[in-house]
Design goal:
The protein has six helices and no strands. The chain has helices at residues 2-12, 21-24, 29-40, 43-52, 66-100, 104-127. Helix 1 packs antiparallel against helix 6. The two termini are 15 Å apart.
Amino acid sequence: MTYLLFLALEGWQTDEKPLSTADLNSAPGPLILRGFLSNVFNPKSVLFFVSVVPTFVQISPGQPNFPYQMAIFGIVYVAIATAVHASIVMLAAELRPWLVEGPRQNVVRRGLAVALVFVAGWLFWATKR
């Protein structure tokens, strides 16, 4: 929750200089690698896969299908996650010019900062005992 508030504060503060077109059109290679590694080593994904997927795998006595079924589920999971993330990236690429030009950049940053404060408040309210 504290981290969400930190991100909200960081997002609320405006940049002294707006992003330029050169900043936005930098080489995508390092960004793609960073995103890939973040997703592959995301502990939430690993925990989800390890805790949920085995309940869908049928273990039959005498049949060593478990590794194959887990591999198939893993491939399907990665394919779906890749499709979802690619869709989000393509949508963000289409919206980027509208979101980061002129005064809209600060409005969007501050709107997202307020959303983070609401999420932090909801998280605090939902987990209090």
